[in-house]
UniProtKB/TrEMBL annotation:
This protein's UniProt keywords: Endoplasmic reticulum, Kinase, Membrane, Transferase, Transmembrane, Transmembrane helix
Membrane topology according to the record: Multi-pass membrane protein
GO CC annotations on file: endoplasmic reticulum membrane
Example GO BP: dolichyl monophosphate biosynthetic process
Subcellular location: Endoplasmic reticulum membrane
Family indicated by similarity: Belongs to the polyprenol kinase family.
Matching InterPro entries: Polypren_kinase
GO molecular function terms listed in the Swiss-Prot or TrEMBL record: dolichol kinase activity
The organism's place on the tree of life at top rank: Eukaryota
Name the UniProt record assigns to this protein: dolichol kinase
E.C. number(s) listed in UniProt: 2.7.1.108
Broad class of where this protein is predominantly found: endoplasmic reticulum
Biological source species: Fregetta grallaria (White-bellied storm-petrel)
Residue ranges crossing the lipid bilayer per the database entry: 12-41, 61-80, 92-116, 122-141, 153-171, 211-232, 244-262, 282-303, 324-339, 345-365, 386-406, 426-446, 458-478, 490-517
Amino acid sequence: MLNKPVLVESLIVFIIVLFVHAVVWDRYSWCAVALAVQAFYVQFKWDRLLQLGGAVFQFRTAANSGLLPASMVIPLLGVVMKERCKSAGIVYFERFGIVVASTGMLVALFLSVIAVGITKPVPTNTCILTGVAGSIIIYTMKHSLTVSEVVEVLEVLLIFVYLSMILLYLLPRCFTPGEALLVLGGVSFVFNQLIKRSLNVMEGRGDPIDFFLLVAVVGVVLLGLFFTVLFIFMDSGTWISSMFFHMMTAVLGLGVIMPWLYRLIQRNPLFWLLQFLFQTQTRVYLLVYWTFLAASACGVVFYQNAKRSSESKKHQASTITRKYFHFIVVATYVPGLIYDRQLLYVAAVLCLAVFIFLEYIRYFRIKPFGQTLRHLLSLFLDERDSGPLILTHIYLLLGMSLPVWLFPRPCAPKGALSGAGALVPYSGVLAVGVGDTIASVFGSTMGEIKWPGTKKTVEGTMTAIFAQIIAVALILIFDSSVNLNSSYAWILASVSLVSLLEAYTTQIDNLLLPLYLQIMFMA
C-alpha cells in the first residue's frame, strides 16, 4: 500500500493535471492524463524497489521515488507552452512546445518501463496500463510530429539513457528516480538543442543569451564528466592533480567552450558579455547591488562556521539559518525581474556555472580551496545531501532561475503574458523564495497542527499561501508590466495547490514547486 503522504501528493498532481487538461482540452492534454494514471501505478513499483533495494542504481534514501510529480513536469510545460504560443500565432514555438511535451512523455514512459521490467514477479496490471498509455502517446506522436521532430525526440531519449547510466553510477544517492528524471531529462534536452542549433547556425534563429545558457550548461557537464573519468586514474587531492585541473579547465574553456559560443553568436563571447553586462547604468547598479548581496551570503557562511568552532564540532545550521539564503535570493531576483530580466537571465547562468565549478573543486578536493569548501559547506547539509555531491544550493538557484529561463519570450507580446501568465517569471520567487521560506520559518517556530503523515504544519502552509498573495499584491504595485486581468481566483488556486504540494512532497521542493507554479500560471 502507498502511504498517505504519497497518496495526497499524487492527488494534488492529478488535480493540477486536470486543471491544465480542462484549459487546453486537446489530444496532448489527454495524453498527459493517461501518462499521469500509469505513472501513479508505476510509482508504487518504484517505491517497492527502493524499499527492497532492488533498483539498478543507488537512489536517495528517506524519500519516495517521486515518479508521478516528476513525470508530469516536462509534458505539462510543453502543453501549456504550445497553447500560449498557438494563441500568439508563433508557429515555430508552438511546434517546439509539442516537441517538449512529446519528449517529456517518452522519457517518463522509458523510466516506467524500466521499473516494470525489473520488478519481480512481473506486475501484469501495471504492464497493461503502461502499454495502453504508451500506445496512446505513441499514436498521438505519430499523427502530430514531423519526421525531423520524431528524430529529435529519439535523440533526447538516447542522450537521456546514456547520461543516466553514467551519472547515476558515478553519483550514488544524489537523486530519487523522479529527481533524476527531471535533472537528467532537462540536461539531455539542452544537449540536443545545442547540437541542433550548432548544426543549423546559419539559419540565424535564436537570441545570444539563449545560446549562452545552452553552452554554459553543456560545458560544465562535460567538464565534470571529463574530470570524473580522469581522477579515476589519479589522486585528485595532490598539488599536481590540482594544477592539472586548473590548467585543463582553462584549456577546455578557452579551446572548446569559447569557440563553440563564438560560432553560435558570431562575435567574441568575452567582448559580447562585457558589453552586455555594462550596457546601461541600471545594469551597473544592479551588478553592484548583487555583489553586495553575494558578499553578505559569504558573510553568513563564515559567521555560522565561526559560531560552530566556538560552540561545538557537531553544531549544524538550523532551518531558519538556511532560510537566510532564501531571503538573500529573493532580494537578488526581485529587482532583476522588475528592472532588467535579460541581465538577470545571464547573471543566473553565470552563477550556475560558478556554483557547479565550486562543487567540482569541493568534490575533487582541488587545492587550495577544496578542503576549505568541504569544511564550510558541511555545516549546511541536511538529509537531502546524502550523496557525494552537495546540490541543495544549486537546486535553489535552479528553482529561482528556471521560470526566467523557460519564459516563452517570443510568445509574450510586450515581454509579458496576459492574466496569471504575467507572473510566470516570478514563479520561483513566489514558490521558493516566499512560500517555502515562510512555511519553514513559521511552521518550525509556531506550528502545532501537523498534516497527516508529515512533519509539515497546517499553520506553515496557510501562512505560506497568505504570504504569496501579499507578494503578488506587491508585484502588482512595483512591476508595471504585470496585468492580471481579474485572474485572481486562478492565482489563489495555483498558489494553494503548490503550497499543499510543498507540505506533502519528499522530493527537492526548490526544484519541483517553481515548475508546477509556472505550469499553473501559464495555463
